Every structure is written in C-alpha cells, then in structure tokens.
Amino acid sequence: MIDLKQQLVEWRYHLHQYPETAFEEVKTSAYIAEELKKMGLEVHGNIGGTGVVANLTVGDGKGVIGLRADMDALNLNEIKDHPYRSQHPGKMHACGHDGHMTNLLGAAKLLSERKNFNGTVRFIFQPAEEIGKGAEAMINDKLFERFPVDEIYGLHNMPNLPVGTIHTRPGPIMASEDNFVIRIKGKGAHASSPHMSVDPLVIAAEIILALQTIVARNLDPIETAVVSCTEIHTDGIRNAIPSNVEIKGDTRSFKLEVQKLLEDRMRKICESICEMYGAECEFEYTHEFSPTINWDECNKIATMAAQNIVGEKNTNSDCAPFMASEDFGKFLETIPGCFVFLGVKNEGEELIPLHNQLYDYNDEVLVIGAEFLAEIVQIRLSK
Ligand SMILES: [Zn+2]
Ligand SMILES: [Zn+2]
C-alpha cells in the first residue's frame, strides 16, 4: 500500500504542475473532486465558481466541522528548476496553496479511513483567495445554507516560522485590506505659468503627507493600522502642469472601527485639501479583505489539536498578528473558527518568502498539516 507521505507528495506535485489563478481553477478543482470521490466522499462542485465541497458523515452525531483550503495560484513565472515545475507559463503556486490543498486532501484520506469521530466533516476548497473574492463568492452561492457548519478551520504555511511548528492566537491574526483611489482635478497650464494653473501635483503631495497623520495622530496608539500610497499618475507631460493626478494605495487594520476611522479621515483630508486649493476631489474606498479574527473557543481547540500533533514546545497559542490579509477572514465574520500558521522553514536554509518566484511548499509538513486538521475533527466530534 502506498504510504501517506508518498501519496501526499504525488498529489502536491500534480497540483503544483498545473497552477491556475482566481476563478479559473478548473483542472485543479476537477482533480481534487476526483481524488475525493475515490475516497468515497459525497462531492459537490461549481460552488461560487470553481469551489468544491466534500462531505463525510460518520455515526449519527449532529456536530459539523468545516475544514478549508484555498486553490488559486499567482501570475508569476516559476524560476526554480525541479521535475514538477509549473507547466502553465506565467503562473505558479508561489503562496503554497498546492500544499494547503494537499494537507486537506490528506485530512480527508485520514478521516475517511479512520472514521474515528461522530458527526459530519465538510472539506471546503475555495477559489480566488489571492484577490479576496473566493470566500464571498462561495457564501453568496449559498455555501452555508446548503452545507451548514458549526465551526470552520484553516491554515497557511509560513516560511519565516520553523518547520513543524504551529502558531495561532485568539482574536485578530491577520489584517483587513482596503484599497483607495484619490482623483484630483485641477487646471493644467504651461510649466512656466503656475499662476494660471490649479496644480494638482502640489495638492497631491500635501495629501500624501497629510494621510500619514491619521495613524500618527488620529488612531489610538494601542491600535494598529497602515496607510500606504503606492502609485501616483499624472497627465504625464514634462513641460506642463497636469490637470489630473490620481493617487492609489492600500490600508490595513484589524478592527471594523479602525477601518471606518481610516476611511472617514482619509475622505475628509482629501476633500478639504482639494477644496482649500480650488481643485475637485473624487475619493473612492473599497473593502478588499476582511480582517481575520479568531474566535476564542475555536482557538483553544486549534491549540489543543496542534499540541497533540506537534507537541507543546512546537505550538504557539499567542503568536504575533501578521499585517497581510487572508480571505478566510470572510468566513470568520459569521462562522466561529480559527486560522493557524504552519511553519515550513528548514533550519539553516535561506528564507524564501511567499509570493517569491522560487517559492516551493515544504513536503515535510504535508503529513503534519493533514494530521492537524484531522485532529481538530477528532477533538470536536469525539465519539
Ligand atoms: Zn498569497
Ligand atoms: Zn496564500
């Protein structure tokens, strides 16, 4: 019989070779559905686009646990030369979602063989995590009406944490992400005649600096937020004062109140500065990712599962939060659950960050991740 690790490696190398990006995970979801069916699970596809849900019921227990993995890759060219390198030019699994899918397939295999619980497990494979739209698409497609769950759990591999360690925390663990566009309409003129213009570039410079006062002077210093202007575009002629300037950027925070404060103060600053100089202002602010906020009870369960699988010394139940964003936060808005980080860094090896063209999931944590997810079910739906 093929052993578990060998099976997981085979699955991951296949998924790694055929990376697909947001909402295009067609081959990926078909492959996953096929493997889940071979385990005897009841499989449903096309949920929120390419999403897949597989159900496994043992006994007559009423409890239902959801376990979730993300399926999408990134628009990057893989540069590491290994036998299972990406066969889709310009796309690669640089965030380790190939590993997450394999961890979850592994958990499905373990639970369907062991049947050591009483209740129902739903294996949820979601599309489009990287753009923060897949969870919402599945929820809008009646995911939880069709397949209700009491609690939901998920994980992300972390290249800066030692291999085989599991880290989590109660409360906020990953930030929200909002995007903004500020359009300033002034009056263009010859570069030599500033008195005939309303210069939107000078106004933009003042806005960019003033936006930094929100975190420094409006936000309670105990709270956390980031406001970053990341792009500036003008009409683009060297010897003309432009008529239009567009500033784009991104904000991060952990709480809805802070998110609201950032949006309100930004709008006020942009509109007021533009008005002061006689320019028109258009301020656009969009919510891209919800903050990922772990539920206390579920954090305790995840911690217990981690301790059972990797031991107490390799479990951190109160790690530092991470300012990046994660689509799993959308599920946690309404469903109790917990998200954890799975360390993948081998000692002495160079750190390759997520989203790097050399990134590759560490096969050493394929079984650990699968056992950890299965353990949550065993604890929560104990016979
Ligand atoms: Zn990513
Ligand atoms: Zn990711």
Automatic annotation (TrEMBL):
**GO terms of biological process kind:** diaminopimelate biosynthetic process
Instruction: Name the cofactor(s) required for activity, per the record.
Output: Mn(2+)
Q: For Mn(2+), which residues are the binding ones?
A: C95, H97, E130, H156, H355
Q: How is the cofactor bound?
A: The Mn(2+) ion enhances activity.
Q: Which domain of life is it from?
A: Bacteria
Cite the entry's keywords alphabetically.
Hydrolase, Manganese, Metal-binding
The GO terms this record gives for MF are: metal ion binding; N-acetyldiaminopimelate deacetylase activity
Name listed for the protein in its UniProt record: Hippurate hydrolase
